[in-house]
Structure formats: C-alpha cells, structure tokens
Design a protein that fits this description.
Elements lengths: L5 E9 L3 E5 L3 E5 L3 E8 L4 H11 L7 H6 L2 E9 L6 H9 L22 E4 L5 H11 L6 E4 L7
Antiparallel strand pairs: 1-4, 1-5, 2-3, 4-6, 5-7
Helix pairs in contact: 3-4
The structure holds zinc ion (ZN).
Zinc ion binds next to α3.
Length: 154
Amino acid sequence: MTDSSGTYALLLRPDDEQRIEVGALGEMSVRAGVYVYVGSAFGPGGLRARVQRHVEGEGARHWHVDYLRAATILETVWYTHDDTRRECRWASVLRNHPTSRVPMAGFGASDCDCSAHLVAFGGMPSFLEFRRRVQAACPDHTVIEQVSPANFVT
Ligand SMILES: [Zn+2]
C-alpha cells in the first residue's frame, strides 16, 4: 500500500455483543460476525495514511466507522489503488452478496445515495469471491489486494 489514493474495505470483528452509539445515526446493535465497511481516500496522505488511522483506531470520531472501530478488532483490509473512486460500487457488491445484511441504514453513506457502506456477515467473507464479484461488475478495475493490520507500525 502506498500514499496514492484508492478505495478500501475494513473487516471488523466485534470483541463482544453490545449496543453502540454511532454519532447522529443513533444506536446500533453489534452482534457476533464480521462487519465490512467500505471507504475511499482521495485526499492528502492517500490510502496509507487513512488505513493507518483505522489500524490505530484512536483519536476523534469523525466518521460513522470510527464508532464501530472502537468496539471491534480490525482483522484485515482489502484495498485498491484504482484511480476511480470505487467505494459505492464495492458497497453495492457487498450489499448484493447473498449472505450479507445491512445492519444500519445510512451507515457511512452520508455523501452518496447508497443505502449503506457497511454490511454484516455471519463469518469471514471470502476475499477471492469478493474480488471476483467486483471484477465482474467492473471489468476495467485494477488489482485488489489484501493486507494484514500487522503490516502497519502503530
Ligand atoms: Zn455510496
């Protein structure tokens, strides 16, 4: 991962079942399973600075995902340096996955028309299957990679 811009997904596993407050959205019930949040970083610092911030999971809570991050373990990160903003497409692929559900309408989707940029699965979804679905939806999509949070220095 570099300082270039790009799109990413955080795979988050709750450390406990609980109810959390998600800023202005209100209360969300966090259950066992894996939550997948999609975002993009097209500003200064690019993808690496943004993901580094999520890995650390500290500081002020600006985005909906910051509230969820505080209640979960970041297991893995999927990302692309594709220079097109792919986050809404990724979110759509994830929402259309046969075993996903949208745990909270509007989560992470304040700036677009998506129903949510967060989905939940009962267990860890397959990276290869996700990549195949995105590439089928966007034939011109550049490579999608997976990285462990352990590769970031905190
Ligand atoms: Zn969207």
